[in-house]
Amino acid sequence: MTSRLLTCLAFVTLSAVVAHADSAADLRRRMEQRLPAIDALKAEGAVGENNRGFLEVPPAGKAGSGTVITDENRDREAVYALIAKQTGATPEAVGKARARQIASGSKAGVWIQDEGGQWKKK
Amino acid sequence: MKRFLLLTSACLPALFSGCVNVKTTPIEVKPIHITVDVNVKVDRALDDFFGELDSKSATHETPKS
Question: What's the Rg (C-alpha) of chain A?
Answer without folding.
Answer: 18
